[in-house]
Write a structure and sequence with these properties.
about 60 residues, mainly alpha, Arc Repressor Mutant, subunit A, 3 helices, about 0% strand, globular
Amino acid sequence: MRWTDVHDIAIELEEAHPAVDIMAVRFTDLWQWVQQLPNFDDDPEKSSEKILEAIQMAWLDERD
């Protein structure tokens, strides 16, 4: 997965962190969690606040 695979990342985050309050997650933590996903393989520097927001929103949608 790459940073642009927002939906796939959201699915994996939901499986890895099902009890977390998504809206309370700090972007620094989210950034680290994404990089820790087993299928994630992208340059950490390619991340941005916009991408992290998109991941957060996709994760919310996935939970609903």
